[in-house]
Amino acid sequence: MDKIQIYAENIQAMALSYLPSFLMAIVVLVIGWWLIGRIGKAASMGMSKLDESLRSFIRSIIMVVLKVLLLISVAGMIGIQTTSFIAIIGAAGLAVGLALQGTLANFAGGVLILMFKPY
Questions:
Q1: Are 82 and 76 spatial neighbours (Cβ–Cβ below 8 Å)?
Q2: Which residues, other chains included, contact 24 with Cβ-Cβ below 8 Å and sequence gap of 6+?
Q3: DSSP letters for the chain
Q4: pTM for this one?
Q5: For residues 15 and 37, is the Cβ–Cβ distance under 8 A?
Q6: Other Cβ atoms within 10 Å of 59 Cβ, number
Q7: What span, in angstroms and rounded, lies between the C-alpha atoms of 45 and 42?
Q8: C-alpha span between 33 and 90 (Å, rounded)
């Protein structure tokens, strides 16, 4: 019976030590998610002169990048080592960039056509 009581006390002590950082991470996650939504709306309004398809594409890219950064930051606040996540994201970005090298040039040309509308 003493071992169960010792384990219960250890669990209680660990919960009390991790609870403030966990609650702070949840608060940061909620506020960050709200701010990302506001930034997305502001970015969409700021690009009102652009074509609708280009505006929604840029807005979605901005929001996805900010959400990934927020999730990595919250994971770091909880105590998870984030260096491996950052390395994986960098390697994946490099791999996708190299795989789509020719396609990205065509995509950039399409974006330029949508932005400047030469036709």
A1: yes
A2: 77
A3: -HHHHHHHHHHHHHHHHHHHHHHHHHHHHHHHHHHHHHHHHHHHHHTTTS-HHHHHHHHHHHHHHHHHHHHHHHHHHHT---HHHHHHHHHHHHHHHHHTHHHHHHHHHHHHHHHH---
A4: 0.75
A5: no
A6: 19
A7: 5
A8: 23
Distance of alpha carbon 24 from alpha carbon 30, whole angstroms? 10
**Closest residue by Cα to residue 45 from 35, 32, 58, 34:** 58
Per residue of the chain (119 residues), give pLDDT as tens: 688 888 888 888 888 888 888 899 999 999 999 999 999 999 888 888 888 888 888 899 999 999 999 999 999 998 889 898 889 989 988 888 888 787 778 888 888 888 787 76
Structure tokens at 45: 């309004």
Nearest-angstrom CA–CA distance, 54 and 60: 10
Phi, psi dihedrals of residue 64, rounded to the nearest 5°? -65, -45
